[in-house]
Specification:
With 87 residues, the protein is an alpha+beta fold. It has a six-stranded antiparallel beta sheet. It has three helices and six strands.
Length: 87
C-alpha cells in the first residue's frame, strides 16, 4: 500500500483506503473516487498536481489530497479482503 501521490505514471492501482475523515471521503466520492475504484496515473511529475483517470474521468489532484488516497497495484489489491468495498 502506498499514497497515490507516489505512484509512477501510466500504472493502474486500486484505491484501498482514504485517510482524512468522513468529509474528505464524501467529497472524493462525489468525484467518483471511492475505495475499490481503479485509478490510472496519467501524469505524475512528483511535484505540483497530478492527473489521474478514475471511472473514465480525468481528474487533477493536488499532492496533499493525493497523499491521503492509499492505493495498491491492481494485481496485489485483488488479493486483499477489502478491495470490493465501495464498488
Amino acid at each position: 500500500m502506498m499514497p497515490l501521490s507516489e505512484v509512477p505514471t501510466g500504472k493502474d492501482f486500486r484505491i484501498v483506503a482514504i485517510q482524512g475523515g468522513r468529509a474528505l471521503a464524501v467529497r472524493l466520492a462525489g468525484l467518483g473516487v471511492t475505495v475499490g475504484s481503479e485509478v490510472r496515473s496519467l501524469i505524475n511529475n512528483r511535484r505540483g498536481p497530478m492527473l489521474v483517470l478514475v471511472r473514465q474521468t480525468r481528474l487533477a489532484l493536488g499532492r496533499g489530497l493525493a497523499a491521503r488516497i492509499m492505493v495498491a497495484p491492481v494485481e496485489a489489491a485483488s488479493q486483499g479482503d477489502s478491495v470490493g468495498a465501495g464498488r
